[in-house]
Amino acid sequence: MALSLNPIPWRRNGATAEKLYGAIVAQARLPLFYQAFGLPDTLEGRFSVLSLHLFAVLHRLGQGNDEALYLSQKLIDTFTADMETVLREIGVGDLSIPKKMRGLAASSAALLQSYAAAFAEGDEALAATIAETLPLDGDAAVAAAQSLAPYLKEVVRKFEAQQISRLVAGKVNFPQISETSE
Prior knowledge:
This protein is an all-alpha fold and 182 residues long. 70% of the residues lie in helices and 0% in strands.
């Protein structure tokens, strides 16, 4: 039996994860989320929208084979590296970075798990969970969540209708979004 010097195909998913993450970030930066849905165009507001899109992609990858699951981890690693970069850019000192990153990783994992649980429970639970996570108060959070929950469900449905091989290849197409996406 000859040994292969080629790495396992899914071990090359670093570039694919970066491509997917870039598409997630681009979608999360659409002005409509901040102008029409009332989310603040702040670090916290962008993180909220980014997290929703990251959840949708991870949700679909979680339904795949080992290659998709490996890509999920690479995508989380890419997200984590980006969050570390953001912390540095906003002036968090080098000595504080590890502690901040541990806290951010734990809260991000909990956030993604809460979206998964709420998604499984249904529309009301999903909207309520989204409202709880938004950097908005009271009625503004509820109103934004009432728009974001149906949008998130549409994104997940679109991804589920696509072959998982598209995501594994780094191809992601988000549905069109408009003020009337509710």
